[in-house]
Design goal:
The chain is mostly helical. It is built from twelve helices and no strands. It has one domain (about 5-280). The longest helix is centred in the N-terminal third of the chain and has 28 residues, at about 65-90. It is globular, with a radius of gyration of 18 Å.
Length: about 280
C-alpha cells in the first residue's frame, strides 16, 4: 500500500461505517439481535483474515490486556446497542448526527479522567457541536419517539467517547485486528442470551443484511482503517471519517426518502466542521 491507496482505503472505511445505520434499519429484528449478528459475522471474517492473512497472526494476551478488552467490549456493545435503538426510533440521519457528538464527550471525559484543563478553543468546539445538536433535534418533546431516538444517538456518542478514554487510560500493546476480533467475540457471547429467543424467527434477508453489516461495516472497515493509518496522518484521516454522517444522510435520503430539512443540514454542517477541527487539534 502507498499513500494513494491508503486514502482510497480510508474513504471506503468511512463509506462502510456510514452504511451501518442503513443496514441496521433494514434488519427487522431487535437492536440487541442486530448487535449480536454484527459481532458474530465480524468474528468469522476477522478470524479468517488473521488465519490466512500475512502479518495478522495471533499473539498471547497478558491478563491486564485481557481485562481491558473485556471492559471495552461491554462499552462497545452498549455503543452499538444505543445506536441501533436510535436508528429504529429516529431514522438514520438523526441517529448518526446524534452519535457524531462524541468529540464533545471525549473532551469532557478526558478533562475529568486526567485532570486536564479545557482550553478556550475546545470550549468553542463543544459549543459548536451543541448548537449543531440543537438544530438537528427533531423536537423538544420527550413524548416524541424521534426525540427519544435522538437522545439514544447522543448516548451512543457518549459511550464511544468513554471507550476512547478507556483505551487511553490503559494502553494495550496488542494488534488492532486481533483486538477487534476478541472484542467482537466477547460481544457475541454477551448478547447471546438476548438473541436466542429471536434466532428461530430470523429471515434469510435479515441474515444477509447482518452478514453485510458484520463483514463490510465492521471487519473490512476496521481492517482498512487500521492499515491505512500506517500511511496517512491522523489529521488527514479525520477529514474522511467526518464524512461518515454525510454518507449516512445521503443513503437515508436515497433509500428511505428521509429528506433532510435545511435545519438538519445546517446542524450537520456545524457538527461535521467541529469534528474535523477537534481531530486536527488532537492530532
Amino acid at each position: 500500500m502507498n499513500i494513494r491507496y491508503a486514502l482510497i482505503a480510508l474513504n471506503l472505511s468511512a463509506f462502510f461505517f456510514g452504511l451501518s445505520g442503513i443496514l441496521g434499519k433494514l434488519v427487522s429484528t431487535s437492536p440487541a439481535f442486530i448487535v449480536f449478528g454484527r459481532a458474530a459475522f465480524a468474528v468469522i471474517a476477522l478470524s479468517l483474515l488473521m488465519s490466512c492473512g500475512k502479518g495478522f497472526g495471533w499473539q498471547r494476551l497478558p491478563w491486564r490486556s485481557a481485562r481491558l478488552l473485556l471492559v471495552s467490549s461491554v462499552i462497545l456493545a452498549g455503543h452499538w446497542l444505543t445506536f441501533f435503538i436510535s436508528v429504529k426510533a429516529a431514522g438514520v440521519a438523526v441517529a448518526t448526527l446524534g452519535f457524531a457528538s462524541f468529540p464533545a464527550f471525549t473532551t469532557l471525559f478526558e478533562s475529568l479522567g486526567f485532570n486536564e484543563r479545557i482550553s478556550r478553543a475546545e470550549i468553542s468546539l463543544i459549543g459548536l457541536i451543541c448548537l449543531g445538536l440543537i438544530l438537528v433535534c427533531p423536537a423538544f418533546d420527550l413524548d416524541s419517539g424521534s426525540t427519544r431516538g435522538f437522545l439514544w444517538g447522543i448516548a451512543s456518542g457518549a459511550l464511544l467517547a468513554l471507550l476512547i478514554v478507556c483505551n487511553r487510560i490503559t494502553a494495550v500493546n496488542i494488534r488492532p485486528v486481533q483486538a477487534a476480533c476478541v472484542q467482537n467475540g466477547l460481544i457475541t457471547l454477551l448478547m447471546l442470551p438476548f438473541a436466542l429467543p429471536e434466532l428461530p424467527l430470523v429471515s434469510l434477508q435479515d441474515g444477509f443484511y447482518l452478514a453485510l453489516l458484520g463483514v463490510f461495516c465492521t471487519a473490512i472497515a476496521h481492517s482498512l482503517m487500521v492499515t491505512s493509518l500506517r500511511w496517512v496522518k491522523a489529521r488527514a484521516a479525520a477529514v474522511f471519517f467526518a464524512l461518515e454522517p454525510v454518507y449516512a444522510i445521503l443513503f437515508a435520503w436515497w433509500w428511505f426518502n428521509e429528506q433532510p430539512t435545511l435545519r438538519i443540514c445546517a446542524g450537520a454542517a456545524l457538527i461535521i466542521f467541529s469534528v474535523i477541527l477537534y481531530t486536527r487539534r488532537k492530532s
